[in-house]
């Protein structure tokens, strides 16, 4: 079961808590509110998400927020397929942060996958109630197309289709079965008479739908499988796109802050005078664990913060450092009392088999910073019993809930204005965004709207990092096959999400040793497929070499013949020229990982630079996400995920010293630059027709192990602790 | 004393303190929010603008140093009739941006590169394009620069 993903999903419950009693909205009230917010006279609104105007303009109110994943465009394609229109004619707008726009598609999708298949058979009204109660308006989990799009939005479109068809049939006096929707019209197949959707919409939306609409399949069609241009891009090339940090309001002030260097520490004392003496500084606000300077602009606010010498306690975490965390994790594992165990078969017996050979290896991964290019920036304006928030965070309804709680206001008194996000990668899940509470508290003490911006230094040092973790993998080998595999890993809570062991091994076991520090372990693009992908696929490579077999062949013989996995692996090997000698000075490595319903194999070709760091020359990726809704965008997601993964693997590391983060900016937390990116990345999609998989995250996990495996092929050195840096140097 | 400069063809007087980085004066005084804040230490390039034709990381250029200069931001790249710059058009044609946050800076860096080197080699692109992109759009940035070269060279010739 995907505990981690469930945590990501339903983690809002921990925060929402009391929100659960809140089956407080009746569906109809929420829908009436949603309709009032978006639908004007003459227009037809369908299940909140879809609106058709008399001039035939179709507006899709997407609960997904854009951070470059292209989901809006793919969602428009799915809706266009359902309604028989050109996707370019659908305008995608951000759904308001209102309960009527809660995302039941995500509840249904993840619920069916992780909790019970019964979720797929629950009535939409019940799922809607749950989505509003949680509340759920998440962007994440590679769910924007496969769940939000194919389930929630396409269901709305299927409902609209049924109602438009019925209305057209009545007006034309023909049976509904003889009406087809195409090219933006409802046409009677017999006579060719047709009505525009725009002239049917208002009346159609008044009709009752007596059965649950059934959306069409996610198969290539007139819209699905095309690559229409993304609507968000023009605003991103002429500077007009508005991110959270760009929000500008009359009389607005700008604030920035310094937080306790050791997470968990509290503010003990600060002399605020040096900041207040700076021209443009208006206010210094002390929070429990931070000092905020409010000024007429970011620069005076930053100067104000720099002028301060606050004293923070260390919360008892002052002894923590990165090597100590690895050592403590090793000790915890050696103590042998796992918190959770998963798997099947008798691993202990297989490992004790006298005819088997046992191989074991230890792997370590550091904390990773998400490094979204736009630092946190949240604007809040408190006016009496009313609160407005401007933010780009990965769940606006949850932002509303959290802000209301901090402000001591009912949710209905809080309006969240959602902006696009300058990156996220998991950092912007509200439950881990202290910036929400900070902005609300600051605004509560100010007469103006205040935009709170985190500096890059605060961003780097106060992340919700990909967890530092260590693992010991142990396998039994007999007659060239793996007979048992055990993974003992020490890491924070909620770690099983997106862990899929792909190989046919009779006995497997994963034992989790929960290890908590003062750090906020957050979801990081591809969550646990990320560390598990690295150590599992590296270790499989080690096992192949242990039995003297080619790593691709070794993987292949442990996969079910005829499976999607074999097809993906074979295609990657074929396209990468596996088996042919690589260019001189180049090593080739392969890895295969399934995550978010998508199977990806990657082959990396790498050399060593003079300084011993790897230089990736070429990556071949083969992807089976069922059906590729928008191939050009899917390619961008896979390719970008590969580059991000290589960046993290080669040189990224957050370390702790005396409980505080050592790194502070891109100067000591280096991201891969254009010159270091692979000059060649080939992405190929297999259209298997399997249920839709995600596309935002699955490209990430195979890249690191494929690179580490390539370096082993090149140098004979196995890198078991990330980042790689110059460890492969001979 | 107010500092004067020419921004996107218009003479402006900045009211901010002379140590204010150009980035914040552009964003907060002039409302030109297309230029982005990424790191504050000239490491990421999200704040790249042109100062007297050269690409400059505006987060680390104090207003005092910008006095009397000619500054172009992403908002000033379009032609007078609203036509996108060929590099901007190439960015759309190649569908370069993902989250888009770094792209103003990337485009400004690319335009500056093409003004210097109308037909840059891959090595020249490597050397000039040091701006960070966390989404990993680098392959499409490279492709868009190559795609823009013919057009950009023509536009430059036309302007000369």
From TrEMBL, chain A:
Q: Which residues form the Aldehyde oxidase/xanthine dehydrogenase a/b hammerhead domain?
A: 238-316
Q: Kindly give the Gene3D superfamilies that the UniProt entry links to this protein.
A: Aldehyde oxidase/xanthine dehydrogenase, a/b hammerhead (3.90.1170.50), Aldehyde oxidase/xanthine dehydrogenase, molybdopterin binding domain (3.30.365.10)
One family name in Pfam for this protein: MoCoBD_2
Q: Which domain of life is it from?
A: Bacteria
Family matches, as SMART domains: Ald_Xan_dh_C
User: What terms describe the molecular function in GO for this protein?
Assistant: oxidoreductase activity
Query: What protein is this chain from?
Result: Xanthine dehydrogenase family protein molybdopterin-binding subunit
UniProt source species: Novosphingobium piscinae
TrEMBL record, chain B:
**Alphabetical list of CDD domains matching this protein:** fer2
Instruction: List the PROSITE patterns.
Output: 2FE2S_FER_1 (PS00197), 2FE2S_FER_2 (PS51085)
Molecular function (GO) terms for this protein are:
2 iron, 2 sulfur cluster binding; metal ion binding; oxidoreductase activity
Q: Where is the 2Fe-2S ferredoxin-type domain?
A: 1-77
The protein's matches in InterPro entries, at most eight in alphabetical order, are given as: 2Fe-2S-bd (IPR002888), 2Fe-2S-bd_dom_sf (IPR036884), 2Fe-2S_ferredoxin-like_sf (IPR036010), 2Fe-2S_ferredoxin-type (IPR001041), 2Fe2S_fd_BS (IPR006058), Beta-grasp_dom_sf (IPR012675), Diverse_Oxidoreductases (IPR051452)
One Pfam entry for this protein is Fer2
Give the UniProt keywords, A-Z. 2Fe-2S, Iron, Iron-sulfur, Metal-binding, Oxidoreductase
Under which name does UniProt file this protein? (2Fe-2S)-binding protein
């Amino acid at each position: 079961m995907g505990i981690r993903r469930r945590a990501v999903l339903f983690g809002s419950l921990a925060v929402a808590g009391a929100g659960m009693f809140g089956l407080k909205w009746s569906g109809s009230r929420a829908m009436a509110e949603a309709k009032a917010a978006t639908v004007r006279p003459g227009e037809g609104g369908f299940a909140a998400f879809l609106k058709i105007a008399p001039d035939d303009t179709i507006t899709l109110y997407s609960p997904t927020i854009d951070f470059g994943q292209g989901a809006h465009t793919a969602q428009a394609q799915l809706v266009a397929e359902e309604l028989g229109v050109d996707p370019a004619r659908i305008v995608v707008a951000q759904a308001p942060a209102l309960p009527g726009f809660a995302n039941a598609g995500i509840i249904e999708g993840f619920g069916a996958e992780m909790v019970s298949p019964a979720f797929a058979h629950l009535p939409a009204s019940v799922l809607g109630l749950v989505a509003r109660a949680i509340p759920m308006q998440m962007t994440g989990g590679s769910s924007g197309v496969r769940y939000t799009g194919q389930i929630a939005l396409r269901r709305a479109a299927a409902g609209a289709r049924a109602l438009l068809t019925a209305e057209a049939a009545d007006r034309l006096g023909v049976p509904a079965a003889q009406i087809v929707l195409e090219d933006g019209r409802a046409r009677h197949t017999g006579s060719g008479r047709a009505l525009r959707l725009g002239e049917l919409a208002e009346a159609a939306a008044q009709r009752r739908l007596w059965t649950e609409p059934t959306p069409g399949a996610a198969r290539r069609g007139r819209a699905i499988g095309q690559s229409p241009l993304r609507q968000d891009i023009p605003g991103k090339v002429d500077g007009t796109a508005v991110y959270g940090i760009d929000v500008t309001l009359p009389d607005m002030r700008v604030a920035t802050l310094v937080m306790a260097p050791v997470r968990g520490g509290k503010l003990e004392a600060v002399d605020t005078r040096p900041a207040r003496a700076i021209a443009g500084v208006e206010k210094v606000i002390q929070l429990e664990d931070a000092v905020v300077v409010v000024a007429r602009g970011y620069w005076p606010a930053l100067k104000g913060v720099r002028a301060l010498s606050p004293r923070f306690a260390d919360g008892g975490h002052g002894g923590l450092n990165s090597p100590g965390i690895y050592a403590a994790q090793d000790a915890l594992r050696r103590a042998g009392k796992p918190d959770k165990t998963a798997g099947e078969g008798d691993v202990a017996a297989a490992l004790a088999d006298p005819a088997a050979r046992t191989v074991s290896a230890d792997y370590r991964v550091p904390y990773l910073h998400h490094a979204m290019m736009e630092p946190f920036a949240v604007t809040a304006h408190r006016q009496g019993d009313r609160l407005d928030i401007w933010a780009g965070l990965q769940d606006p309804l949850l932002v509303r809930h959290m802000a209301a709680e901090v402000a001591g206001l009912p949710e209905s008194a809080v309006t969240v204005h959602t902006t696009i996000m300058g990156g996220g990668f998991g950092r912007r899940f509200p439950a881990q965004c202290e910036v929400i509470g900070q902005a609300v508290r600051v605004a509560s003490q100010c007469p103006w709207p205040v935009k709170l911006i985190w500096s890059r230094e605060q961003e780097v040092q106060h992340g919700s990092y990909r967890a530092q973790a260590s693992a010991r993998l142990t396998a039994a080998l007999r007659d060239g096959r793996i007979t048992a595999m055990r993974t003992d890993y020490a890491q924070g809570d909620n770690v099983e999400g997106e862990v899929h062991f792909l190989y046919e091994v009779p006995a497997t076991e994963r034992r989790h040793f929960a290890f908590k520090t003062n750090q906020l372990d957050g979801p990081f693009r591809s969550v646990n497929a990320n560390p598990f992908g690295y150590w599992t696929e590296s270790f499989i490579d080690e096992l192949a070499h242990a039995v003297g077999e080619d790593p691709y062949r070794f993987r292949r013989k442990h996969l079910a013949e005829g499976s999607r996995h074999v097809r993906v692996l074979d295609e990657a090997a074929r396209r990468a020229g596996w088996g042919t000698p690589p260019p001189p000075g180049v090593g080739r490595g392969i890895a295969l990982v399934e995550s978010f319903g998508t199977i990806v194999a990657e082959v990396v070709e790498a050399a060593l630079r003079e300084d011993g760091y790897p230089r990736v020359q070429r990556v071949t990726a083969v992807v089976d996400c069922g059906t590729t809704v928008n191939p050009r965008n899917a390619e961008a997601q896979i390719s970008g995920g590969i580059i991000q993964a290589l960046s993290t693997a080669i040189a990224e590391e957050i370390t702790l010293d005396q409980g505080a983060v050592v790194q502070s900016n891109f100067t000591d937390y280096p991201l891969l630059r254009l010159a270091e990116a692979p000059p060649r990345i080939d992405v190929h999609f297999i259209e298997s027709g399997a249920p839709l998989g995600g596309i935002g995250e699955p490209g990430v996990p195979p890249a690191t192990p494929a690179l580490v495996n390539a370096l082993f092929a090149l140098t004979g050195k196995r890198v078991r602790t990330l980042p790689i840096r110059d460890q492969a140097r001979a | 004393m107010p500092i004067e400069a020419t921004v996107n063809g218009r003479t402006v007087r900045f009211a901010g303190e002379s140590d204010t980085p150009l980035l914040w004066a552009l964003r907060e005084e002039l409302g030109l929010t297309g230029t982005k804040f990424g790191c504050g230490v000239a490491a990421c390039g999200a704040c790249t603008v042109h100062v007297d034709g050269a690409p400059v990381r505006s987060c680390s250029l104090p207003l005092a140093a910008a006095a009397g200069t000619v500054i172009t931001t992403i908002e000033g790249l379009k032609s007078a009739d609203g036509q996108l710059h060929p590099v901007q058009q190439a960015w759309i044609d190649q569908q370069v941006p993902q989250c888009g946050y770094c792209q103003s800076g990337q485009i400004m860096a690319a335009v500056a590169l093409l003004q210097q080197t109308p037909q840059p080699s891959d090595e020249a692109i490597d050397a000039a394009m040091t701006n960070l992109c966390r989404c990993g759009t680098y392959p499409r940035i490279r492709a868009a620069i190559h795609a823009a070269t013919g057009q950009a060279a023509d536009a430059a010739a036309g302007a000369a």
